[in-house]
Amino acid sequence: MARAKKSFEENMERLEEIVSLLEKGDAKLADSLALFEEGTKLVGTCSAMLDEAELKVVKLQKGSDGAPVESDFLEEEP
To answer: At residue 37, what are phi and psi to the nearest 5 degrees?
Structure first.
């Protein structure tokens, strides 16, 4: 059974939990390494999600007829 894809917020919440657990310093070495590995994967996942979201961001500008026109957010203005 495939797991449902977690949201960015859920991934960030888990990452915060991992950081908190590692900062306590109570975990055994093997557990700490497993948490670190999970955290590293979550950072990669969250980074990819942010990159994907950035690609979807568009800037709305007023066209010559006054209607809104979408353009790439990073597009330089004349």
So the answer is: -65, -45
Model confidence, pTM: 0.68
Query: Residue 50: how many CB atoms within 10 A of its CB?
Result: 11
Closest CA to 15 of 49, 44, 48, 53: 44
Write out the residue range of the structural domain in which residue 42 sits: 8-72
Tokens at 58, concatenated: 């568009």
Q: Using one digit for the tens of pLDDT, what is the confidence trace for 10-66? A: 999 999 999 999 999 999 999 999 999 999 999 999 999 998 887 777 666 767 787
The domain total for the chain is 1
